[in-house]
Amino acid sequence: MRPSSHSAVLLSAIFTAALLAVAAKADGGSVTAAASPSPPPAWTAVANVNDRSIQQVGQSAVRIYGLSTNKTYLRYVNVVSGQTQPCNGGYNYRLVVTVAGPGATAARYDALMWGILGTTNWKLLSFTLAAN
């Protein structure tokens, strides 16, 4: 290391120690590590994939994907399975959706949507061909 690098490292260490001392003083004299964030809530299986709201989420995922990728020929068929998870005031929806393509071809896709039921606040987070 060059002498200027040693000085920079030393000054950085001194500055960090001073900040910790100030924080400890303001905190009543103790320095504690930041608490780790709590893990996200668990995924819950969708009890009824034929529920109208679940079908609408699946249909919206196909529509948004088709419009964003210029594949507007894709047609929603149904939701095969799904899970939900509370997230940021709404829910994540992890769905397996059957989609019809050109002709008689059909395929299953994994769709991940976030949204709040009864609102227009929806985001398609991912849409990928499902593994067999």
From TrEMBL:
Keywords: Plant defense, Protease inhibitor, Signal, Thiol protease inhibitor. Residues 1-26 form the signal peptide. One of its GO terms (molecular function) is cysteine-type endopeptidase inhibitor activity. The keyword Signal applies. GO terms for biological process: defense response. The keyword Signal applies. Belongs to the cystatin family. Phytocystatin subfamily. This is Cystatin domain-containing protein. It comes from Oryza sativa subsp. indica. The lineage of its organism: Eukaryota, Viridiplantae, Streptophyta, Embryophyta, Tracheophyta.
